TrEMBL record:
Domain of life: Bacteria
Main location per the UniProt record: cytoplasm
Function summary: Catalyzes the formation of acetyl phosphate from acetate and ATP. Can also catalyze the reverse reaction.
The protein's Enzyme Commission number: 2.7.2.1
Subcellular locations according to the entry: Cytoplasm
Catalytic activity: acetate + ATP = acetyl phosphate + ADP
Alphabetical keyword list: ATP-binding, Cytoplasm, Kinase, Magnesium, Metal-binding, Nucleotide-binding, Transferase
Gene3D superfamilies per record: 3.30.420.40
Name of protein: Acetate kinase
Transmembrane stretches, start-end: none
Record family assignment: Belongs to the acetokinase family.
Residues the UniProt record annotates as site (Transition state stabilizer): 186, 246
Pfam families (alphabetical): Acetate_kinase
Length: 398
């Protein structure tokens, strides 16, 4: 325990089988100083586990939890709350949450009240696998600790700057009005990248940037003057580039075909979210490290598919800006795999883009060669920090 409990901001990112949490002390050079990060994994399984590390990465806790205490997200949130209040000797000043969907209107983080919570619940059909889990901890904290301010930060918000045309599919207006729009996701990651570019590469930050978030989920974003103008993801986080277990681009006719084969909605949903992408294509794994280490022809083929379609989808975003000045890779694969960055960039040789092998092996920041007409960079993302910053800013506005 260090300073007083009321000097902290808690960030929560709740998924279907895990809750990740990060604690920041308010103050210090950067305004927010990371104190610890943890997660409960295996929610709803027989062996849920709590792991917490301090800011230097040293383990603070690592233990099994009784399955009945983490049978679902609300339950697991109680475990996080109890552990934190024991550790801090009190509650955080505010909690910032990652919420996948802010719908067509919410373009900024918001302080959560009953009205906002009801609005966010109404967006659950737009993200049925994520939104209910994201909102569960908000509800638990509102019930148990109503005095704590809570802020919802949306993966869609950064993309609300898209033009009317970028926001559309070629479907009847009625569907658009009902919400069939190209919302775009990973917005918190891109917002951080835009901020980081302003700090470390200001010349590029004002230009035309294509950023690619290559993690378990994969997307790319066209940013002009630090604002999103297009994204490869659309109505759901299924569209666009190939991912760990999601296919990315897919002829909508395939879904019709699956229905004709007698697959139920839930079976199709499971197939598209959990059994496709690198996992489906390789038949081996969704983990890029395993595929890179494998000699199997299907692993090679999956990696070739990934590099080709990611390269194609990324460079296609240049049309939204009539060109591109810089390319940025981020997230698990984008930050750590020189081999995949090289494989993707090889598809841009016709543009004169060349990576410098040594810079690429060092993971940047600049990985392109000096004579490459378009600079290619690696920038580490930090979605939690963006959430903590927004939460603190909204608190200060209050
Ligand atoms: P998320 O937060 O969306 O779960 P991450 O951004 O952590 O995802 O990225 C996870 C992906 O990053 C996994 O496919 C993993 O294999 C990949 N990854 C992590 N480190 C490396 C590495 N050194 N080389 C290749 N892939 C990596």
């Amino acid at each position: 325990m260090s300073d007083t409990p009321r000097d902290t901001i808690l960030v929560i990112n709740a998924g279907s089988s895990s809750i990740k949490f990060y604690l920041y002390d308010i103050g210090g050079e950067q305004d927010l100083t990371p104190r610890l990060g943890g997660q409960i994994e295996g929610i709803g399984t027989l062996r849920p586990r709590l792991r917490v590390r301090d800011a230097a990465g040293q383990p603070l806790v690592e233990r099994d939890i009784a399955p009945g205490h983490a049978s679902d997200v609300p339950n697991a949130q109680e475990v996080v709350g109890t552990w934190l209040s024991g550790h801090l000797g009190g509650a955080p000043l505010a909690v910032g949450h990652r919420v996948v969907h802010g719908g067509p209107d919410l373009s900024e983080p918001v302080l959560v009240d009953d009205e906002i919570l009801a609005q966010l619940e109404a967006y659950a059909p737009l993200a049925p696998l994520h939104q209910p889990n994201n909102l569960a901890p908000i509800r638990v904290i509102r019930e148990r600790r109503p005095a704590i301010a809570q802020v919802a930060c949306f993966d869609t918000a950064f993309h609300r700057s898209h033009s009317d045309v970028a926001d559309r599919y070629a479907v009847p207006e009625k569907l658009y009005r009902e919400g069939v729009r190209r919302y775009g996701f990973h917005g918190l990651s891109y917002e951080y990248i835009a901020q980081r570019l302003r700090q470390v590469l200001p010349d590029i930050a004002t230009g035309r940037v294509i950023a690619a978030h290559l993690g378990s989920g994969v997307s790319a974003c066209a940013m002009h003057h630090g604002k999103s103008v297009d994204s490869t993801m659309g109505f759901t986080a299924l569209e666009g580039l190939p991912m760990g277990t999601r296919p990315g681009r897919l002829d909508a006719g395939v879904v019709l075909w699956m229905m004709e084969q007698g697959m139920s909605h839930d079976e199709i949903e499971h197939m598209l979210y959990y059994d496709c992408g690198m996992k489906g294509l390789s038949g081996i794994s969704n983990d890029m490290r395993e595929l890179l280490a494998s000699e199997a022809p299907s692993a090679r083929m999956a990696l070739q598919y990934f590099a080709w379609r990611v390269a194609e989808g990324m460079i296609g975003l240049a049309c939204a800006m009539n060109g591109v000045d810089a390319i940025v890779f981020t997230a698990g694969v984008g930050e750590n795999s020189a081999e995949i960055r090289q494989a993707i960039s090889a598809h841009w040789g016709w543009l004169g883009i060349r990576l410098d092998p040594e810079r690429n092996a060092r993971h940047g920041p600049r990985i392109s060669s000096d004579d490459s007409p378009i600079g290619v960079y690696v920038v580490r993302t930090n979605e939690e920090l963006i959430i903590a910053q927004h939460t603190l800013a909204l608190l200060r506005q209050r």
